[in-house]
Amino acid sequence: MKKVMLVEDEELILQGIRNIIDWEALGLEVVHMAHNGKEALSLWEKEPVDLVVTDVEMPVMNGLNLLREIRGRDERVRFVILTGYDEFEYARKAIPLDVEDYILKPIDEEQLEAVAKKALLKLREMDRDNAKDMEDRIGWQKFLEGGSSEEEQKTFLSLFPRVKKAELLSAAVMKIDSRSMRKGDMSELLSILQEEACRVIHLGTDTLLLIDSFQIDYTWNGGEGETAGKIRGEIHSRFSCLQNRLESELGIFTFISIGPSFTDYEKLPDAYREAMRMQKYRMLDGYGSCVDDNHIRNRESKDVAIDETQLRKMILQKDRDGAINYIEDLFINNIRKDTDVNNLYQTALKIAMLLWDIKGEYKLEEKNMQDLSDMVEGIYGAEDIFGLKAMFISEISEIITYLHTENSAYTPVVKQIMAEVQKNYREELSLKTLAYKYHMNASYLGQIFQKEVGCSFTQYLSNIKNGIAKDLILNTNRRINDIAQEVGYTDTSYFYRKFKQCYGVSPASLREMKKY
Predict the structure, then answer these.
(1) How far apart are CA 257 and CA 236, in angstroms?
(2) Whether the predicted model's global pTM rises above the 0.70 cut
(3) Most buried of the four, 58, 98, 187, 435, by CB within 10 Å?
């Protein structure tokens, strides 16, 4: 919430301003109430506010002098002037001080609420603009990664407010699931973050660094370790509640990793780097999770069991279903959430090496397939475990398809049928019509095809169609419905079902993964 200070020398009017509208419902919190400018300035110096609603004529220090003092310290604060009719020309002297609006006494409830909303909107716009300007002006990434000069660091640190006594700071990296974002959602998201008093640093189109403050409660009982645990729990709870709000109000899914707390902004880069280190746990925990060091400390470090010999055998025997089911079982059933994410990456790298060995052994490197560096990049770029699984299922399907095509042991009639499929996959092909064309018994031809190719004719035709569709999805911007028609599927829902059976992921999800 944005903070508000009310200043009025008459106590009855001051209480009336406090209670005439529901400030909290507007996203505003009244933190100070003062009876003159001097008292107000003293309160502001202890705890700055975002909006000041003040009378003009007051004893000790009037409203205009109060505005000048605060404006000299902070250009962002918004002001609303309360004035009587005969004081209005006097109040107009505040125009150069960038006053938000003027309200004549007696105060009208609806007018005060409208002006408060206007000031709040202005604050949000200024914060968004400031965040963007700061991102453009300062090398945030360079500073956070420890690459800026000493002079640049001083400039950067001067932009942060002074840390108050007993104030603890926390930093978290928020990764946004782009698939859950709609046009205009980012503005709403930033507004909520501002309401929650989070300072936002843009690290990328879908990555934000959030900085929040936390007041230490010295009344907590217990030892140092117990108190630290309570603080960690409070910080984690705060970011989790923020995450839940984004999901419930906007339908936006995020993954938040929280770095260690600190009391000096010079420690922000350390907290950022630790939070970034924990971002890799998005692979296991997925969007909708919020993790800190306490949540990942006790994860198991033992290796994930993978039988490379068995997987290799299924691929070389062209057992597509067996290999895909093995990958499904490995990533979805055998890799648990409490596993250390480094073991997941080690397992994925073992599979990538196995597939690369098979490609080298059967001279498939020259084909239009991923090389080892592409697969490694795909492993570390995958959004979650499901994206990783889909990548390997797609690669295994490609290898098996090429092994079918390259096998020289095919009989002439099977080679002819495979060539027919490659050429005329868009047409209504069936084993029965092809058997008639080649003067063979359909049942017998089906048995030969299954034995030599390792799958039924229907499955082979589906694999060819889906392989071509996959290339079009990844390498063109054509609509998926049009791609389905292009490869011979008249029913788009049937195409989705067959494609997912082949690659373990829907056509739309595959295109989203390509964006990442």
Answers:
(1) 9
(2) no
(3) 58
Half-sphere exposure of 157 (CA within 13 A, CB side): 15
What's the pLDDT tens digit per position in 355-365?
A: 888 887 777 76
* pLDDT of amino acid 368: 63
> Rounded to whole angstroms, how far apart are CA atoms 451 and 404?
11
Cβ atoms within 10 Å of 480's Cβ, excluding its own = 19
Bridge partners of 215?
A: 167
Select the highest-mean-pLDDT range: 98-102, 195-199, 347-351, 501-505: 347-351
Residue 294 structure tokens: 């306490």
Which residue bears the tokens 């090496």? 353
Sheet containing strand 78-83, edge to edge, reads 28-34, 2-7, 51-55, 78-83, 101-104
Could you tell me the CA-to-CA distances from 405 to 359, 399, 437 in Å, in that order? Answer: 14, 10, 21
DSSP-assigned beta bridge partners for residue 339:
300
CA angle 499, 505, 506 (to 5 degrees): 60
So what's the pLDDT on residue 224?
54
User: Is residue 314 within 8 Å of residue 323, measured between CB atoms?
Assistant: yes
Answer whether residue 85 shows pLDDT above 70: no
- Calpha distance 234→217 (Å, rounded): 11
Describe the chain by its helix, strand, coil percentages, rounded to 5: 60, 10, 30
Question: Which of 16, 61, 71, 18 minimizes the C-alpha distance to 36?
Answer: 61
pLDDT tens, 279-305? 888 888 888 889 998 877 766 555 567
Distance (Å, rounded) from C-alpha 318 to C-alpha 312? 10
Nearest Cα residue to 2 out of 121, 164, 98: 121
Q: How far apart are alpha carbons 483 and 25 in whole angstroms?
A: 50
Model confidence at 516, pLDDT cuts 50, 70, 90, reads very low
Cβ burial 279-316 (10 Å sphere, 16+ → b, else e) = bebbbbbbbebbbbeebbeebeeeebebeeeebbebbe
Give residue-wise pLDDT tens across range 246-272. Answer: 988 888 999 999 999 998 888 999 999
Pairwise CA distance, residues 279 & 174, whole Å: 9
